[in-house]
Amino acid sequence: MADMPTEVSWSPASWRAKPIAQDVEYPDAAHLSKVLSKLGTLPPLVTASEIERLRHQLALVQRNEAFLLHAGDCAESFDACTHENLSAKIGLILSFSLILIWGARLPVVRIGRIAGQYAKPRSSKTEKIGDREVLSFRGDNVNGLDPNDRTPDPERLLSAYFHSTATLNYVRGLLTSGFASLHHPRDWSLAHVRSPALRMEFEAIVDGLSDALDFSRTIGVESTASAAFEQGGARSTVGEVDFYTSHEGLMLEYEQALTRAFAIPRSQAQAKGAEKAFYNTSAHFLWIGDRTRQLTGAHVEYFRGIRNPIGVKVGPSMQGEELVRLLGIVDPLKEPGRVTLITRYGAGKIEDHLAGHIAAVQRSGHPVVWICDPMHGNTETSASGLKTRHFGTIIRELTACLRIHAACDSRLGGVSLEFTGEMNDAGFSVTECVGGSMELSEAELGLRYQSFCDPRLNFEQSLDVAFLVSNYFKK
Ligand code: PEP
Ligand code: MN
């Protein structure tokens, strides 16, 4: 079959022979190739053993033994690579996951949309700004937001690598220097939560956690974290947490340049029938976007050959049979934890599609992780012209998703969110999505709208979602 290339050999460059959706045309091919050669010599951002560890943990999510939180900005920008922004983002991810762990009594696998989430797919190649038609902004690793800076510049790929490196370096520092310690959750910017009810709920968890940690310390079991969760790599202890990076694998030239062959663990090598595998070392987890998931396209070709766990966005235009064929290409060995399906239908469409997709995947026997992205099918334009999302609509898709999985003898393994813990100097959160416990109105959107891409939930709205999910899974 034309879309079943599993017999055909794969190389990090084999995608080049296929049609490339969302391709970027560089005016200077020699310049691009010089940059790509340089990228090809730079060190990996993440290691093969970290990637293996994430694969193992996602297999636990698939078996309902852990929950996946995938979250961060729609797109990162080079200018937002500051210590305030990064600490706020990590603080929110940690707070969110703590609420889930406390309620659901399950480990949480945290994957940030961070340290490389620069490229954006666009519905149109050009856009009208004033009376000019200019190339669309494709993300900081391609061109500039400034309408006078829209020509794709290969140097931006190098800059993306170095901004990813700086981000990851700071995140690794935060996670190993006590910031992530469960003993100090109040450091994660709780000071800024203005809603008294939300604050009280979070404080109650923190108090309960402190008691539990004191108790563990007293009886001497502090470092006996779940053995199953810890397999497959270095151990982390209570007080430190695992954290993984991800981005949409859109710019295949960049992804290819950071793809490297490494030995795979002996236990896995047997199943794979090979000693080495190709790892994308630019992030632990990469996903294929809803606009680039064509069965015979370049992105699916590239993704089928990498050893990283991958995500696939699944929107309302995906057919059940198409989804199963796609899984046959990217997961021929039916490996638990290899594929995460990120569904994003929209609150008005989920009822028409999700149950059919679940049934098709169940029949196929592919052991996927299902997570809900209640953001991308629910973007609207407000009366003032700002792109927004309504908290109520986001919750409607999320609760429908939980209900439909339960009714189909399946289970929602996690959520994929666009959120930010960013605050202004006075400690106020961004105002990009309407509603939530802070009851943000449409009229308030303009107050602190900072996203240059999709609207994100702010700190308080994100904690609202965390409590909802946590209460659903409460044991
Ligand atoms: C995204 O996750 O930012 C995105 C563009 O999503 P999708 O491919 O689902 O539209
Ligand atoms: Mn987005």
UniProtKB/TrEMBL annotation:
Identify the residues that bind Mn(2+): 74, 376, 418, 454
What molecular functions are annotated in GO for this chain?
A: 3-deoxy-7-phosphoheptulonate synthase activity
State where phosphoenolpyruvate binds. 113, 313, 344
Q: Which UniProt keywords apply?
A: Amino-acid biosynthesis, Aromatic amino acid biosynthesis, Cadmium, Cobalt, Manganese, Transferase
- Protein's GO biological process: amino acid biosynthetic process; aromatic amino acid family biosynthetic process
Cofactor, free-text remark: Binds 1 divalent cation per subunit. The enzyme is active with manganese, cobalt or cadmium ions.
Q: What is its EC number?
A: 2.5.1.54
Check the record and name the Gene3D superfamilies matching this protein: Aldolase class I (3.20.20.70)
Keyword Amino-acid biosynthesis attributed? yes
Q: Catalytic activity, per the record? A: D-erythrose 4-phosphate + phosphoenolpyruvate + H2O = 7-phospho-2-dehydro-3-deoxy-D-arabino-heptonate + phosphate
| Transferase listed as a keyword | yes
The source's domain of life comes to: Eukaryota
Essential cofactor(s): Mn(2+); Co(2+); Cd(2+)
InterPro entries registered for this protein in UniProt:
Aldolase_TIM, DAHP_synth_2
Question: Pathway involvement?
Answer: Metabolic intermediate biosynthesis; chorismate biosynthesis; chorismate from D-erythrose 4-phosphate and phosphoenolpyruvate: step 1/7
Q: Which family does it belong to?
A: Belongs to the class-II DAHP synthase family.
Check the record and name the PANTHER family matching this protein. Answer: PHOSPHO-2-DEHYDRO-3-DEOXYHEPTONATE ALDOLASE, PHOSPHO-2-DEHYDRO-3-DEOXYHEPTONATE ALDOLASE 1, 2
- What protein is this chain from? Phospho-2-dehydro-3-deoxyheptonate aldolase
